[in-house]
Amino acid sequence: MSISIQFLGAAGCVTGSQFLVTAGDHRVLVDCGMFQGSPEEVARNRIPFAFEADALDALLLTHAHLDHCGRTPALVRAGFGGRIHATHATVDLAEIVLRDSAKLQVEFTERWNRRQARKAEAESEATVEEIDDESLPERIRSAAPEGRTDTREPLYDERDVETTMGQMRGCDYGTEVQVAEGYTAVFHDAGHILGSAIIELRVTDGAERRTIVFSGDLGRDESPILRDPTPITHADHVVVESTYGNREHAPHDEAIEELVTAITEVASDEGVLLVPAFAIGRTQEVIWVLDHLVREDRIPRIPLYLDSPMASRATSVYHDHPETYDDETAALLRSGDSPLEYPGQQFTDSVEDSKVIRYAKRPIMVVAASGMLTGGRIMHHLKDFLPDPKCTLLFIGYQGEGTLGRHLQDGGKTARIDGQEIDVRCRVRVISGFSAHADQHELEAWLAHFAADAKPKTIFIVHGDPDAAEAFAGRIRSNLGMEAHIPKHRETVSLV
Ligand SMILES: [Zn+2]
Ligand SMILES: [Zn+2]
Known about the structure:
CATH architecture of the largest domain: 4-Layer Sandwich
Radius of gyration: 24 Å
Strand order of the largest sheet: 6-5-4-3-2-1-22
Bound molecules: zinc ion
Oligomer: single chain
Number of strands: 22
Distance between the termini: 8 Å
Strand content: 15-25%
Helix content: 25-40%
Shape: globular
Structural class: alpha/beta
Number of domains: 2
């Protein structure tokens, strides 16, 4: 087995992308993502890496979403000292995302440790009460073991991010880069978020040569701001995402109509439109569309709160990288428009500012993270607005299994937030046409380009719930006549 790939994340699930390519003595990792969503998924981030971190030659990142880059500082902490290759824009965005993540990791861990300490204290007190004096010392020792081995270290902290950033190397789209002995990579437009890339990895081991194409997360042709995903025509093997492998999105035009309806409704009710959005990607696109709609007079100009400091920082990175824009956005900029801003949008820097949004004169729109309602400022807005029939909770992005977002999107009538049971009386709307991910048809169309040359030997289907991956595998086999394989977690496949 000379050239092989091992699937160490996003295999049988959506998050935690991590693929190890081995050729002889050299190893390159593609993506080093966090598992996100349900508590069971999140717990997987604590499982040690499946390989020696210091034996890795290089890491390539497809884009700056946490489920693709979020464990990188943990890899560095574990001893990886090699280069990290990504597009220039991904390097800039990753710095924002990873610093924020490091802060959260430290906070989570402190909270966890405090909780464990309280628990141990309560247990030892309970033990003291119910036992007699003679056995006391021993019983206490068994109730609270020496040194309390149950304290945790954070996955990583800001110092690890600092070291990680020192290892990053920005590259241009479409340019071949040597990333390790026997490995070259070309980053192509993926059209998903700023800096996102499809990675074409060429691997040589003696006389063996393989080209493996990683789709990363694929965007949609119709999405604004960024260039469309690049069609690739040749690969020996393809690793493709399947987030929406079993679904078709509504067309972008239809999504815009639905957004107009939602805004008009909230405006006439003098209510609140609450949009959970990921700080990077979704937020900038929605604002791009809102700016468009206001300029075309298709929606009333109601105030917009951009309630996410990370989203504001990400928007400024978007400003820094006009080289990634599609023709339409580039033309708007040249004509003096600022398509990444909604007229008069208000930024809320502090949590206090965020909490007083509830008193703002209505109607208003609020865009806040996190996108799947797994934490962040959106949580206090939910407490205020979920019970209010004049409000609309509007989903525009993917909701992971086991998240509060998925529960509400599926019609949940109550929501549990900070131990409180909240009634859901607001309207809940879902617009699928703004997705940052290609749908079944678009994924298939992108794969179809490979048939122009020799068909790839295998299409590996990753980054999808089992139903989506299965359905997509069926389509690939029947419509494209290609060999589709859904790898299991930790499965190694020899690339012949
Ligand atoms: Zn992504
Ligand atoms: Zn992803």
